[in-house]
Design goal:
heterodimer; A: 345 residues; alpha/beta; Rossmann fold; eight-stranded mixed β-sheet; four-stranded antiparallel β-sheet; B: 326 residues; globular; membrane (chain A); transport (chain A); Oligopep_ABC_C (chain A); ATP binding (chain A); ATP-binding (chain A)
């Protein structure tokens, strides 16, 4: 898999170039003494049509900030987002509706993200009306069709969210995201608030809908088992930057960045009593990021070069696997280090 | 397993009083934990695992109450102890850590004081001595610069650091049993690994038994030696963690093991549709008759819909509650 850069590619539905989102913190009225939190700092990503891109990383790594920027809910400090051939950054406010027809989001918590005072019908009809669908019969048809798509019955449209179980509520959340026929759906932890025995139903539904409706997904999750199952490609974020990006099999079978290796090794193996591999330390304070490679204070492979500026750049190998690490070649040369630590079969 | 158990739960039932009637939130719960043993209680929200733990330390409050059964700690019935005797067990001999350390810690008290309090209350130390011990406790849970961190308030610490403080408080008095209720659910996987290893190592060094409660069967199977799976207020299967993933016996446990995408399985077996467990988790006020899993079970027959299954001993070791178990 290679990623053509700098030219138009019909396969690509979303391109993010050098995206940065910085938040001002504190300081006086005139901005004296103000500090900047670099939540996202130079992210490049592409999403192909029909693809599921997994976005992983610890809380605070910037995954959700990337998602909110794509949705147009945050204004980037720098960079460009191209959605289906249109540049959406620096847009006029009126374009918001156009954006909503291309990209939608499924939220983590179906208890908090549905209006408890609106029936399911109202939740699904409102976006249609806002977007100019006025014929009553068409609205009814589209609501009924969408409910069937997500495994609910059209007769249930008159009910309120509290009358549904958690899994059913997430189906409503998915229906709401899909009612305008978007091309891209951002799924932010779509199953982590659900009961364990319900998760498989929702994962299967999301994958089915992706195929039948020809959707592209950005899948944000901390559950690497779910990410591996659903994704075609995986991007790993650390402290506002992509540290590794590649085909799902490459990422999970031959993780090249020590951070990706640590994430995978930290997953408990249910078949074995072996100790979990630990990384040491927390995510550094994003207001005071470490010198050089942001992962160096926690990295067991860090050497002097890693602790000095400039930090490593994201280098794309010929096979499309990109890694931001000075020492990934050397580390890889030492054999299956990660797998011996994690004890995965 | 030899000798007398540290804690023994026999036929415990817990009722929920919803104003007009009493509904069983948990029933027929029996298990034992030996000294220094690691035991896991796994289930979905509402299955009764957390209230079982609260019953063990006498912290159930209305509308929940114990309606039957016996809990013995070192042979003594906990329910028969006076309130004062129960208090001296809690925190001292049986300690608990919770899912969200931010809400479990006192936000307006420095963390050092919250640790020191344990030594003052349970060990009769002076505040001066206790403050010194608090620094040592923070050092033992590997909080960097403990002599400075004791002065911090909970909001000044990261989630992982707060959970370390919780562990320091829980282990301060050298308890015999540590109850850990979803101790890492709010944390990232790398931090989870740190906290689990810390808890596992400290408890092994000190001979502290662990009762770990979680929805994550994989994590519990990795940490604990034995696992009990709960569904809708009952324990449906109890096995060694070596067996629970390899040869689950109850259809619910089988469903859980099969339905979750496990790391490495797609690379090994390709992506296939996940096996779903049909239906929904029943509400506590609406548990089905007979076996409570029957509406979701592919193997259910008439008897499953009418009679609650008894607990059977498995030849391979372990217990299962199913009319048609493997």
């Amino acid at each position: 898999m290679h990623e053509p850069q700098g030219r138009v590619d019909d396969d690509v539905i979303l391109t993010i170039e050098d995206l940065a989102v910085h938040f001002p913190l504190g300081g006086s009225l005139l901005g004296r003494g103000r500090r900047w939190l670099r939540a996202v700092d130079g992210v490049d990503l592409t999403l192909k049509r029909g693809e599921c891109l997994g976005l992983v990383g610890e809380s605070g790594s910037g995954k959700s900030t990337v998602a909110l920027s794509i949705l147009g809910l945050l204004t980037p400090t720098r960079g460009r987002i191209v959605l289906d051939g249109q540049v959406v950054t620096n847009r006029q406010s009126g374009d918001r509706k156009a954006l909503a027809r291309i990209v939608q989001m499924v939220f983590q918590d179906p208890y908090a993200s549905l209006n408890p005072r609106q029936t399911v019908r109202r939740t699904l009809e409102d976006p249609l009306r806002v977007h100019g669908v006025t014929a009553k019969s068409e609205i009814e048809d589209r609501v009924a069709t969408m409910l069937r798509h997500v495994g609910l019955r059209p007769e249930q449209a008159g009910r309120y969210p509290h009358e549904f179980s958690g899994g059913q509520r997430q189906r409503i959340g998915i229906a709401r995201a899909l009612i305008l026929n978007p091309k891209i759906v951002i799924c932010d932890e779509p199953v982590s608030a659900l009961d364990v025995s319900i998760r498989a139903q929702i994962i299967n539904l999301l994958l089915e809908l992706k195929d039948t409706l020809g959707l592209s997904y950005i899948m944000i999750s901390h559950d690497l088992g779910v990410v591996e199952h659903m994704s075609d490609r995986v991007a790993v974020m650390y402290l506002g930057r992509i540290v590794e990006n590649g085909d799902w099999r490459e990422i999970f079978e031959r993780p090249a960045h020590p951070y990706t290796q640590a994430l995978i090794a930290a997953i408990p193996d249910p078949l074995r009593h072996a100790p979990l591999a630990t990384t040491g330390g927390d995510l550094p304070n994003p207001l005071d990021p470490p010198n050089g490679c942001a992962f160096s204070p926690r990295c067991r492979h860090a050497e002097d070069v890693c602790r000095h500026e400039p930090g490593p750049t994201l280098e794309t190998r010929p096979d499309g696997h990109a890694v931001r690490c000075w020492r990934s070649e050397e580390i890889a040369g030492r054999g299956a280090l990660a797998s011996s630590v994690s004890g995965h079969p | 397993m030899t000798g007398s158990p540290l804690i023994e739960v026999e036929d415990l039932s817990i009722d929920l009083d919803d104003g007009s009637r009493r509904v069983p939130a948990a029933e027929g719960i029996s298990f034992r934990i030996d000294r220094g043993e690691t035991f896991g209680l796994v289930g979905e929200s509402g299955c009764g695992k957390s209230i079982t733990a609260l019953a063990l330390i006498g912290l159930l409050r209305p509308p929940l109450s114990v309606s039957g059964g016996v809990i013995r700690f070192e042979g003594r019935e906990i329910q028969r102890l006076s309130a004062a005797a129960q208090r001296s067990l809690r925190g001292n001999r049986i300690a608990m850590i919770f899912q969200e350390p931010m809400t479990a810690l006192n936000p307006v008290s420095p963390v050092g004081r919250q640790i020191a309090e344990m030594f003052v209350l349970h060990k009769g130390k002076s505040w001066r001595e206790a403050n010194q011990l608090a620094v040592e406790s923070l050092a033992s849970v590997r909080v960097p610069a403990p002599e400075r961190r004791v002065k911090d308030y909970p909001h000044q610490l990261s989630g992982g650091m707060r959970q370390r403080v919780m562990i320091a408080i829980a282990l301060a008095c050298g308890p015999d049993l540590l109850i850990a209720d979803e101790p890492t659910t709010a944390l990232d996987v790398t931090v989870q690994a740190e906290i689990i290893e810390l808890m596992r190592n400290l408890c092994a060094e000190r001979g502290t038994a662990i009762l770990m409660i979680s929805h994550d069967l994989g994590l519990v199977a990795n940490v604990c030696r034995r696992v009990a799976v709960m569904y809708a207020g009952r324990i449906v299967e109890e096995r060694s963690s070596a067996d629970i993933f390899r040869a689950p016996s109850h259809p619910y446990t089988q469903g859980l093991v099969d339905s979750l995408p496990r790391l490495g399985s797609r690379a090994a077996l390709g992506r296939s549709r996940l096996k779903e467990i049909a239906g929904v988790v029943p509400a506590i006020t609406n548990f089905p008759d007979g076996c409570r899993f029957n509406p979701r079970c592919a193997q259910a027959t008439d008897i499953c819909r009418t009679a609650a299954p008894k607990t059977d001993l498995l030849d391979a070791g372990g217990l299962v509650r199913c009319h048609h178990h493997a």
